[in-house]
């Protein structure tokens, strides 16, 4: 039975009950009192503060209002429960239309990497405006973190209908990490076309495909695998792997973060930031991106000028949520 038929049946039950009790001469069950009495009677609560007074009214209640009301109440409750369970199941299976904005979309699933990525993203999101996270996959699976992240299952990463359910065009950040670089390339091209203003990051194993995507979508940040470089660095400088892991993981120790120097602030030197950051926030400035083009200058000169709008990269125990720029610039 659909919702329209259910509503029609409820209205018919109310109308027939009203008509029969009115015909029986009931005077105390009128207006809002009638609706209140009918609801508590049909739901078996039955407070007893209102009841029919005529013999005919009592018979109508005993043989029509109560039995039909109980059946209708059970039918309605079952319908609501089934609908709620169906909606919950749709969310778990990734078939539900989401309503999100300024969120993070993770495209692709890898049994080894993606769970750790989601865990770290949840930690980062908790420290940074609490943005929602939506995982988008193509395989037959359920939401790996129900209640913590949103989930969409698509036929393909370039399917308009399915990707629209993930609100891709309204996302602020899109992370692409699929099982194959070809899929990553396709997803990157599609995501760029749907949301050119988003910060898009794509992981590639093949550098040539990363360069190809960068040629067509210059604002996408292509992240290569650095496992080989990290192994060599750890071999030559023991402890480097632990150092890099700590800088990248918000879950442990000191971590690298970034902040944009606000518009309207005076031009300062790196020296003007370096000491105040350390004194007031126990943070260390390590790089600046003067043009905010994703190519930061690491270990800049102390005399390097910092203009409003550029990005500052720093190391700290936690993300600094509120900078007192006036205090820094007045140092």
UniProtKB/TrEMBL annotation:
Gene3D superfamilies recorded: 1.10.287.70, NAD(P)-binding Rossmann-like Domain
GO biological process, one term: monoatomic ion transmembrane transport
Pfam families: Ion_trans_2 (PF07885)
InterPro entries: K_chnl_dom (IPR013099), NAD(P)-bd_dom_sf (IPR036291), Trk_Ktr_HKT_K-transport (IPR050721)
Membrane-spanning ranges: 59-83
UniProt keyword annotations, A-Z: Ion channel, Ion transport, Membrane, Transmembrane, Transmembrane helix, Transport
Domain Potassium channel: 8-83
Name of the molecule in the record: Potassium channel protein
Organism the protein comes from: Pontibacterium sinense
Organism classification: Bacteria, Pseudomonadati, Pseudomonadota, Gammaproteobacteria, Oceanospirillales
């Amino acid at each position: 039975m659909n919702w329209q038929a259910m509503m029609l049946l409820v209205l018919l039950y109310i109308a027939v009950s009203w008509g029969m009790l009115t015909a029986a001469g009931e005077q105390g069950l009128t207006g809002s009192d009638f609706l209140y009495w009918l609801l508590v009677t049909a739901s078996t609560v039955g407070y007893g503060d209102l009841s029919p007074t005529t013999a005919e009214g009592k018979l109508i209640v005993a043989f029509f209002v109560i039995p039909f009301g109980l059946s209708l109440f059970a039918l309605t409750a079952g319908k609501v429960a089934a609908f709620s369970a169906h909606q919950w199941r749709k969310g778990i299976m990734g078939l539900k239309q989401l309503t999100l904005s300024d969120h993070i979309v993770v495209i692709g699933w890898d049994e080894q990497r993606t769970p750790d990525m989601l865990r770290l993203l949840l930690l980062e999101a908790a420290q940074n405006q609490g943005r929602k996270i939506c995982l988008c996959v193509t395989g037959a699976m359920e939401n790996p973190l129900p209640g913590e992240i949103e989930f969409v299952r698509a036929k393909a990463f370039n399917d308009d209908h399915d990707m629209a359910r993930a609100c891709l065009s309204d996302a602020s950040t899109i992370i692409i990490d699929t099982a194959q670089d070809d899929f990553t390339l396709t997803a990157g091209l599609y995501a760029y076309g749907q949301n050119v203003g988003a910060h898009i990051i794509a992981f590639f194993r093949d550098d040539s495909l990363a360069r190809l995507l960068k040629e067509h979508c210059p604002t996408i940040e292509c992240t290569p695998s650095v496992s080989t470089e990290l192994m060599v660095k750890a071999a030559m400088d023991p402890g480097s792997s632990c150092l890099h892991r700590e800088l990248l993981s918000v879950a442990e120790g000191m971590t690298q973060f970034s902040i944009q120097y606000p518009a309207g602030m005076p031009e300062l030197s790196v020296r003007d930031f370096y000491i105040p950051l350390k004194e007031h926030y126990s943070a260390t400035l390590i790089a600046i991106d003067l043009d905010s083009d994703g190519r930061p200058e690491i270990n800049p000169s102390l005399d390097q000028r910092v203009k409003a709008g550029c990005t500052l990269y720093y190391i700290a125990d936690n993300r600094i949520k509120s900078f007192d720029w006036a205090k820094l610039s007045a140092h």
